[in-house]
């Protein structure tokens, strides 16, 4: 399995911080899409990056983790990767507010507050999502997810959704372990 990081429009050091806080303990190989600025929105550039790096390994499963504007390019790249024969194990959107998320792969949203969580669900999501409570500013979810407390909402359960309190980093660790073992 490979994790593909698709950052938003911000300084690269913030993405480095995210990786060190969230993914340093995993044995899964991680690749960061290097596009800066508006390239974060570019599905063709993300797809070309994947093709260049994975070459003949299209059957190697990938998990996309994307943030903010990077969610726009990453979801389209994930769809196209599948069309080209690639395997998308999961798609994790961190504060991709306003971005429709549908696909025939598991999708998870992390939101910086309850309103963003609730309103984003109208545009598609999976069953396991996270929202910060208390609310934090948008960039905190990417810069310092280990400090962001919130709720894991599991709507797979019958009846009303189940909730569990944890940090954004803990939620991401659970997801990565889940897909790493599948």
Automatic annotation (TrEMBL):
UniProt keyword terms in alphabetical order: Membrane, Transmembrane, Transmembrane helix
Q: Looking at the record's lineage, which domain of life comes first?
A: Bacteria
Q: Where are the transmembrane segments?
A: 62-81
Protein name in UniProt? Uncharacterized protein
């Amino acid at each position: 399995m490979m994790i593909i990081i698709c950052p938003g429009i911000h300084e690269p050091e913030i993405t480095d911080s995210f990786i060190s806080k969230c993914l340093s303990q995993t044995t899964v190989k991680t690749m960061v899409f290097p596009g800066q600025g508006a390239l974060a929105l570019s599905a063709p550039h993300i797809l070309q990056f994947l093709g260049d790096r994975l070459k003949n390994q299209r059957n190697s499963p990938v998990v996309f983790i994307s943030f903010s504007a990077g969610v726009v390019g990453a979801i389209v790249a994930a769809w196209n990767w599948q069309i080209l024969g690639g395997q998308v194990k999961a798609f994790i959107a961190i504060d991709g507010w306003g971005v429709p998320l549908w696909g025939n792969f598991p999708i998870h949203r992390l939101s910086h507050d309850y309103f963003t969580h609730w309103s984003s669900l109208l545009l598609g999501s999976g069953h396991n999502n996270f929202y910060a409570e208390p609310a934090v500013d948008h960039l905190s979810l990417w810069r310092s997810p280990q400090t962001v407390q919130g709720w894991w909402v599991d709507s797979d359960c019958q009846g009303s959704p189940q909730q569990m309190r944890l940090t954004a980093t803990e939620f991401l660790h659970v997801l990565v372990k889940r897909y790493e073992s599948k």
